[in-house]
């Protein structure tokens, strides 16, 4: 009896030290595996900053608003109507897995700590948190598309466990989708599909929402393997070296390395110096401020082109699949397969038409709003 108790004690001791490393069933047997992160990846973060510092730093680039139930949230200033988190920048493969390199000077904070939420009147807002990751996103992956979406508020990461997320679903508009072949682009925003396409593309992709944890607190964003990306883009994935820096102004990207500033964040019971009410914030962050009608026309033409091109790709792909299925079917099943293929094509065309209508409706509303704001701006200038 004593021997059994001793064995149970040992089991409990060792089980408490197990780290969360999810099994990746996307790795194919016989395919070369990428080496694990180098020891440099486990180096401690440089320095320590406080929540007060973050309040002051981001206050230079946006507005703090008290927002139930999350407390103080931050809204970026001057990003424009079509802005979305994780849209202006690029993805690189590093010792931390897929790492987001932002084009925004403030991007080292809200794309690597915290969560992003959406409000119909305020737009995107950021909820602070203290755990660093190469990017707090989940992925969607398919034969034609790659998509990603920011983790929403309320999704916690628990060291030793992983993501604590109940419903595991997101509104369609959270997702950013591109044709997979553009994944390596340094200007991803030029290839982002209009959100009206999401209702169809979601059905063509599967969710990947795992993170690997190494050395207890080092978070690796590797839910998509490099091999999968290589198959879709037909380009090799090159690991980019990481250099950790000691100041935020030193962060950025060079030709063959990225510089990361990832300090530890000390929690404090404090508040931003300037906090807006929601009504005040709505006035300050007008999405059409300083946007000209001709600029919107350019964006709309790009959206229409991307929508038409990808819809055509889907129809061509589905037609080929239907023809192959009918060709390989036994003679007595061939007519049924042909009818099924035609039915699927017709259903896809209906969804495409719905997307076009939704896009045209949204674009028309944007044009009306911007023309109204442009006229008001000109009138105010004349009065001065």
Q: How do the helices and strands line up, and which of them pair or pack?
A:
Blueprint lengths: L1 H14 L32 E3 H9 L2 E6 L3 E6 L12 E6 L2 E6 L12 E5 L3 E5 L9 E5 L3 E6 L5 E3 L3 E3 L11 E4 L18 H4 L4 E3 L3 E3 L3 E3 L5 H8 L7 E4 L7 E2 L3 E4 L3 E3 L11 H7 L8 H36 L2 H53 L1
Parallel strand pairs: 1-19, 16-18
Antiparallel strand pairs: 2-3, 4-5, 6-7, 8-9, 8-13, 9-12, 10-11, 14-15, 17-18
Helix pairs in contact: 6-7
Sheet-strand content, in percent, reads 15-25%
- Mean pLDDT rating: 84
> What would the principal axes of the Cα set say about the shape?
globular
Count the DSSP helices. 7
Structural domains: how many: 2
Q: H/E series, N to C?
A: HEHEEEEEEEEEEEHEEEHEEEEHHH
Report the helical percentage. Answer: 25-40%
- Which structural class matches the secondary elements? alpha+beta
Radius of gyration: 24 Å
Terminal Cα span:
92 Å
Strands in their spatial order, largest beta sheet? 12-9-8-13
Largest sheet: 4 strands, antiparallel
Flag low-confidence runs.
1-44
User: In total, how many beta strands?
Assistant: 19
